[in-house]
Predict the 3D structure of the following.
Amino acid sequence: MSEFSVRVSRRKFLITAGASAAGSVLLKGCLGNPPELTGGTQTQSSPTAIPAVNVSAGDAPETTKAKLGYIPIVEAAPLIIAKEKGFFAKYGMTDVDVSKQANWGSARDNVEIGAAGGGIDGGQWQMPMPHLISEGIITKGNQKIPMYVLAQLNTQGNGIAVSNKHQGKNIGLDLKSARDYILSLKSTGTPFKAAYTFPKANQDFWIRYWFAAAGIDPDKDVNLIAVPAAQTVANMRTGSMDAFSTGDPWPYRIVADNIGFMAALTAQIWKDHPEEYFAMRGDWVDKHPKATKALLKGLMAAQEWCDKTENHPELTKILATANYFNVPPNVLAEPYKGFYKMGDSKPDINDKNQGTLYWKDSLGNVSYPYKSHDLWFITESVRWGFLPPDTMANAKAIVDKVNREDLWREAAKEAGIAAADIPSSTSRGIEKFFDGKQFDPANPEAYLKSLEIKKV
Ligand code: CA
């Protein structure tokens, strides 16, 4: 079967499966088999792939296979590039399957059953999904499935989109001057309706932070709901959705396609903020420590590659294909330049440092998974009542169990990453938000105390 026909067949199957009412179940089956339709064949036939290096016997991974889930947004790029450009293969991981997940719920379901059961071994996650899965909070029957956070995939590249019907109401980064307007919608019986794609994770946190910073209680003054990504765009087009929290390429497309306008980029809310992560089932990592480090080395190489401007034409070409994101390449090219149309009379943003970054940002290394960032996600979960208040007493233990920055460090050293690019501490130190609030990882309770709107 030619490469083209493989792609077309797989795409056709995905469309058929996605159209079914039982789409996610069928999709799991599809992504599990058959092997000739997976991306493995394509990597081997890719003329641009980097040839495998000789991995010495002592470093040989315990397995050459891993099945990693991804969601078709730019956060997934390092996983896709590590596969397509041969970076995983370079370190001996020659049979990595990078599998498109129907949504975050499917990714969670698939990691619960694991690759052996037709699911996945790990992949791309919003935070703190790995901790919530490990603690049995979002799993079936509250089963605890230990997971390890291994690397951060990216920073920034997300934002808050608002329906065009709210143009001219001062809805921007600082919502204070739009507060009365938003509260008036509630009093007239049509509360401002805002969405995220999965509850209790990044997008939910960004939109909540944004409202609360302006004195708008996200649990009382507006309606916050979980809506599948594709539906958020459709609902905004029809005006039945007022806002949603979203990732590239949507922050650019929202305005370019006249769906709505951008209130803020997450880079404006919290510069160089933690975004999505690479995490795997703990049992897989424990069984395959060398393969885990091989995956990490491949991922780091891919992250460095993704950040290089000269690689962006090839990066956007690979991501845009029907096999991966199935979008026109130009909607990816603009955000990678840091170019965002904001709409609603706001000036466009043209600053690479506010776009998606994979390897380096203004504060240092992006790939390294700081424990202090896991701690913020746990603290914010307590803030909104997603986790009980007494979690704070165990927060450090929860983070220590899940965050395996030690493996990242070992892999980075083995890969020859410059010492200057390996953070010296598990804490990035005090984090600063746009509204002047600060999160000191050494004293998360002080951050909770400083917040006016919270459920704890
Ligand atoms: Ca995201």
